Amino acid sequence: MKKKLFISTFMLILVGLFSILSFTYTTVHSATTQKVKGSSSSSSTVLKGTVPDGIKNLNDWFNVPNLAPVGGTNNNPGKILEPGTSGNSSSQAVVLISENMVPNTVSAVWSKRSQSNEADQNYIDTTRRQTMSMWLYFGGNGSSSVYNGDGMAFVLQNVSDDTSNASDYYGNLRNGVGGETMGVLGGVTTDFKPANNTSQDLANRAIQNSWALEFDTFPNMNAGGFDSNFDTQLKKGDDHIASGFPASPYTYIDNLTNGPALRHSNLIQKPTLLTDAKWHHITITWEPANVSTNQGGSGQAYPQVKYDFDDKNMDGTPNSDVITQTVPIQEKDSSGNVISNNPFHLTGTDHKLYWGFTGSTGQVTETNLIIFESIPSITEGDLTSQLFDVTQNNREVTSGGTDQANSVNNGDELALTYNPKYVSGSKGWSNIVANITLPTNITYKNATITYGDDTTPTETIALTGDQTTIKHTLTKALGTTDPTRATLTVYGTAKSSNDTNGKPLATTSVATAHASFDGSNLYTDVMTTPFKIVQPKKITLTATDDTNQSIQIGDNVNLGGKVAYNTSTAIDPTKFQVYANINGQTSKIATSMDSIVDSSSSDTFHFPISASDLKDGDNDIIFTVEDDYHNVSNQIEYHINVLGGLLLTTANTSSFKSVNSYPTDRTIGRSDDWNVFVTDERAKDSSWTLQAQSSDLINKGDASAKWNNGGIIFVDKNGNQKSLQNSLTTIATGTKTVDGAQVFQISKQWLVNQGILLKQSSYQISGTYHGTITWTVSDGIKN
Question: Which pLDDT tens digit goes with each residue over 431-449?
Answer without folding.
Answer: 999 999 999 999 999 999 9
